User: Fold these one by one.
Assistant:
Number 1:
Amino acid sequence: MKTDYIGKPTSRVDGALKVTGTAKYAAEFSADGLTYGYVVSSTIAQGTIKKIDLEEALNLKGVLQIFTHENVSGLAWFDRSYKDEDAVAGSPFRPLYDKKIRYSMQPIALVVAETFELARYAASIIKVEYTTESHISDLKENIPNSFKAPKGKVGFKPPVSRGDAKEAFENAPVKIASEYIHSAEHHNPMEIYATTVVMEPDGKLTVYDKTQGVSNCQAYISKIFGLSAKEVRVMSPFMGGGFGSGLRPQYQLFLAVLASLELKRSVKVSLTRQQMFSFGHRPASVQQMALSASPDGTLQSIAHTAYGETSMFEDYTEVVVNWSGLVYQCENVEQKYDLVKLNTYTPLDMRAPGAASGFHAIESAMDELAYALKMDPLALRLKNYAERDQNDKKPFSSKALRACYAEGAAKFGWDKRSIEPRSMREGNNLIGWGMATGSWDAMQMKATANAVLTADGKLTVGSGTSDIGTGTYTIMTQIAAETLGLPIENVTFKLGDTLLPEAPLEGGSWTATSVGSAVQSVCTTIKEQVFKLAKKVKNSPFANADLKEVNFDNGEISLKLNPSKTLSITDVMKQSGKVSIEEEATTMPNPIHMLEYSFNSHSAVFVEVKVDEDLGTVVVSRVVSAIAAGKILNPKTARSQILGAVVWGISMALEEDSVVDNNFGRFINHNLSEYHVAVNKDINDIEVIFVEEKDDVINPLGIKGLGEIGLVGVAGAVANAVFHATGHRVYNLPITMDKVLGLSE
Amino acid sequence: MNTFSYTRANDVADAVQNGSVKTNFKFIAGGTNLLDLMKENVERPDHLIDLSRITLKEIEDTADGGLRLGALATNANTAYNQKVEERYPLLSKAILAGASPQLRNMATNGGNLFQRTRCYYFYDLATPCNKREPGSGCSAINGYNRIHAILGTSEHCIATHPSDMCVALAALDAKVNVTGIHGEKVIDFADFHRLPGDQPQFDNILEPGDVVTSLDLPKNNLSKHVTYLKLRDRQSYAFAIVSVAAALELDGDVIKDIRVALGGVAHKPWRIKSAEIALIGKAATVENFKVLAENLLADAKGFGSNTFKIELAKRAIVRALTEVAKAI
């Protein structure tokens, strides 16, 4: 059919807006009399502010106010007012709340002035005296003070052990044990965090914020400042990358709203690139893996321990170790996940939180075990393939991981691999082939969408979700257009506005499934109503027909058995005297299915590296990523998501490293010059395969999300390829030349 | 922002004159480094004297068969200049190993010499740094020093000079033509930048108000066997962990002339002429290159996270020379 869009490569509906600069981002909105805020960040990691001298700065003409803990009051008292949808256990950070410094680069003042340049200058002449106390910033050193990760974060499941992994390990003939250290990583989306608060003439606030959840931010502001939802409208029409960094309200939102309410002015607060290192990040971690097997490769035990960093005020948790118990068939599994409190901001979900770190360790250990067994690494995975979720003892709604292995291996040419390390060479380069498995949750959340069909056959669909660059606008437009059989150009999807029906936070790879289901549902309801009207029009060819007996396509309704009998949707509306049809629908996952099944996406990643034998430099020359994620809504945007994730994985494996200087307890390479993310030249061939995976259980669309799965196995596959090339295993990320050469750890 | 005056110099004399009457001023040309430093409050000049309109953009032959590079010719125009590509390919390669096309289109040859270090602590006002604030201390020595120096360091500073172009200029025995209050002078490139000593705030030996007008490349026979090997933490848009500018003049496999300069390892491009001279007349073999590498790194000292550079630099030297010896 002409208007079948689901599953077709469809270009981004917002593409033209983006490439022409018409798409507006949070810091690009303006208002009459707009003022500008600039944040002052602490230079120490632990202690108190003894004195903060604002006099000189306040005397500058055009400086309106400087907010500090000394002059901010009347805010909400209780932690619950500061908790947001993605909050974790503990006491959320409160900007400018008291004189205590809990981490380096903590915001300690907001200067508001008539121009940005003035605010920035004024911030530079504020004199702050601290009473410095000793800080804690070294994760590994502080493992003795670790504690069991508490519940508190939505979706966090503490790991559960089974069998007796210790005894099995003792008795097993083949075993390996190793430790993996990751430093923190920062999301570093291209767009910097910013909020523009427009003070409307009636005193209400219109807030343009960089966020992955407008309702989350609306609720946060309302609770803290004692406003009703009607007094705060939060909008986020476009986002220049999120990767999880926008799941929790950032402090510039708080500060901009505070200033706006106090000054009764519109205020814009934009962070600096350096300040992008002053909030959530992927936590540093230390992981210990021990695996044992019988000589034929059957896993006898898995032991996976992870220590993650968290802040002094909250306990951030993510699922790092549970994957070990999930992905492989094994009777004896010990899983432990502890936290260590450091003087840092609370970590924050970052693309495939937990899995990206956990799978690097699991899959490196599986590779190491394969060599100990003298077995092909892929054969070892297949030997221990889990048909069911091993943690929850449930079947998967679908799991086409075997197809990922088979199709990925075939495309890559894995069968031509020699098992021996250092067996392939090209000039100065050692060549290595590595592979890894990946998995991520395929979740669905409650979501609501509304839709309005007007007499001219145009459809507007809306839901308060966000598009962080992944293609939400496009896939929702596709779903709506196909469901109602309208040409895609007649459909508009709106998002990122608290006036729209509520959607879940845009994260966890659940937006396509959650919001997509709501969009499909509301459009189906409208379709039913149109059909009801169509049956009633004069001489209707559908008078006796059932909805199942007609097609909605290209703006027309036709009988399946007699396609010449048609009525256009515009005719139906006109003849029925309808100006518009408006509907709203809420969807949520099937609760019975939720109990009966586990829902996961899977991947198999194959990587070729070229490692300079003398210099240790690593080039990822080839990647094949095979993905099983249900039905693919839009192969074009889907492929882009996986390509981006693979690039991210290469970056994570080889480059990304937020370095803490333990003398200062401070991220010291806090700029994009020294915090390296992959550049174009680092990236070579990447092949993406979507394997066929039919899933009738998960949701009516049969889809799973794609936001995280593309990243999960990449770092492990790169690490394994480096080992295959060199015979030297680098356990700690990033894999830099000095580590490859064994000159650094 | 910090207020500053802005003056456009009409010619070199005007620039020198302006420089002689102003204090706390900076010359600005492409501005690719200075503007960043000003935004970060690392540099806070009261006056900017803009050199960019002065006609010092030519690249022309010198009487003795060398080449003169105007101080205001851009890095891009220099790297892609036919004479540079043919006669001094080492310089082209080094320039193109640095920054990005956009930056190279803005950045000038003179300005390249004045790039300031990329030391994390130099950029972070929350930490002590003797180069930024003399006497405040060096945070890098006992801190994170992956990108720091292993040669010519002092107890006051272990910063490196970040330029790639300068490493090639050092290898090519370039001369820096300078006009100052007291007239013109010519400085050997090897003497232009200085080691930190107890005054790390000074990157070079120029007097206030001195203007670099051009760079002279003397005639040589080093256009055949050259390479610029840059090792870095990603393949583009990163400063060198270690870089090697290497050039050979060979007679069969006998070394007639040899140049090796290192980047990313010291406060200035690192070259030891005596180590090079020791190889002249000897065969271009890996063993001989290893001897040179050992000599160049003999006084190297690591500070923890940069200690690997000592071994890496040796390997890079041997690799670079082996590659160029092979090239026809």
Number 2:
Amino acid sequence: MQEEQATLQAKGVTKRYGDFTAVDDLSFEVRPGRVFGFLGPNGAGKTTTIRMIVGITFPDEGQIKLFGQPVTTETQGRIGYLPEERGLYKKMKVVDQLKYFAALKGVSGREAERRIDFWLERMQLADWKKKKTTDLSKGMQQKIQFIATVLHDPDLLILDEPFSGLDPVNVEFLIDVISEFRTGEKTIIFSTHLMETAERLCSDILLINKSRKVLFGSLREIKESYGQNLIAFRGEGAGAILEDRAMIDRVVTHADEQELHLAEGVDAQDVLRRMVAAGVSISKFEKTEPSLNDIFIDRVKGGDNSDE
Amino acid sequence: MNRFLAVVVHEYKKVVLKWSFLVGTLLLPVLAGVFAFVPAIIFSLKGEPTRIALVDRSGTVAPRLKDNLSADKMAERARKAAADAAVDITPSQDEQLKRTSAQLVESFIFTDVDPAGRSLEEIRSDLTSRITAEEFDAYLIIPPDVNDTAAVYEFRSRKGADFITNDSLRDALNSAVRSQRLAEANISEERLAAIGKPVVMDAKGLDDRGGEKDTTGLMIASFVIGLMIYITLAIYGQAIMGAVVEEKETRISEILFSSARPFTLLFGKLVGVGLAGLTQLAIWIVSAAALLAFLALQTDLSQLVGAVPEISLLMIFYFLIYFLIGYFIYASIFALIGSVVTSLQEGGQFAFPPVMLLLVAFYFSLAVIRDPNSTLSFWVSIAPFFAPITMPIRIMAETPPFWQIALSIGINVLAIAGLVWLASRVYRVGMLMYGKRATIPEIWKWIRYA
């Protein structure tokens, strides 16, 4: 991971509010050009960490470096931040708000107008340029907020729960735009509690729970290292074999199939052989890897147990 | 610096390009005009005449009463009253007096009713029934003996609340009865007038160069300026609070804080809205000057304009300085409140302390108008919170030595630095605390640790 300079480097970052430790000794790196998923249940410390990255608050201990520098107003200018709690001026025209947000990031005049027109067009909102926020739907407001985040062409995009409040069509649309943004040397950090989306978009993930790091690495490596034997199974007459605890640790029943968690050291081939021998009628038998959701639930619950 | 300018421009435009700004800028002069002229217009409107049945049991008062309510007599008395007050009357004002008197005269129609030996009770019930039948509007019974000081002059009217009519009638009746008493005591009217004439006291202030100045005009002008500063400070303070609360309520502050330091944002906001306030004041000052210049050309009103105290450019400069001082003091308090509360309504409730302070400052300014050189005037024109209203008035009434102005400005600038610092500490934490209002101990914690 060290071959090139990390976009973001956090070392031993700790933030306390009175007696409450919101972020505890957190270290991680975000490599350039990657989509970095920042995951964790509500209240885990995601937003606090992001606020330290964008320079709203500062760590009590430890250090955050962006593009090799400490956090300053200069690094703020290279970040586009879409907060989870976000809003617009109610009675101001769309174009005026966007101009203000751009000016705060150092883009003004003709250049700002050119970019605003481009993005409004891209987001299919060109007709709403002169309208006030109160005339826009919630989804449109979300898109305007996204435009405000990218107007200054940031090198690092931080999106905190970007899809909350969007309908499925707009979620797909925004994913397209984000993927487009990714081409080039742009880095994206995005925080979510929706594991399916994270799994789809992220190349690296950091999972935190109760202020502490739980998992960190590339999604690929994590899944492989997590490598529990998991089989998606659909069939008739396997009752006895599924009850055999020496072979199958537990069975999770879904609507139309079952998820078989194999016991330690059991080979999936052996299970299949036994089923065939026992005359089970098999319509599906597929080795799968754990979903991010499984890992998330497992690790977060595991974390709970080890704490208590 | 760029970001700071962006914030200033944004906040300035947000205030100035609003309808309320335009309306407010135009409305204040219009309102002032309305307050000055409308009462005069309303009172000059002619009402329906009051028909009065007159029962004169003395047989001497009625002719005098009617005479007193004639146009010539009324105008003469008004002139005399003006002369007593040592006010010069211009020919056009005299004309005006005659007109109003004539109007007043037309508003009375008297009908003599002969008692004809009937008892008082009978007369009363007769007249009451005729008033109910709308033959008359009122009746007046004059007792037989004018020298009986305990006697009651009975006036009953359907239009009991018409105080203008009632007052004119009472005055005329008083004077009629007095004349009759004097006649019976063999004292001439002129002799009594000479005895009773009040002294002429010519009250004018002296300025520091020994020149005379008119204190009445000065007092009114001081009051107007004090009120104007009070109103603008309250309005712009609340404007700041509204802007802060909006950014907190809509969660825009999180985006803003990721783009610029909270201090830059807060200070930019204060400066931007402050410039909008200066713009409005400049419009008012220029239009007031234009209005006065216009009035001075109208010979009719030159008298009025002459009463306006001389205001030098230096004074205007001081007013603007003190407007800015007051603005920064109160705006930072309002900004602090705005970043603590969760909604504008809640902010309204907590705006009470600064508004109270402003009100106290305004009341102190009345004391300063009365005696600009007292110890109290000295202290309140130097103290933070009060100086922005009291010092401009003191400067106008009796410009204090320069060291006092300098001291006052110095102390208040220090107070501003402290308040802005305090407000920005609270602002940077408070703006990101959604959901509940902070308690005083919490705010104290933010100030210390933020």
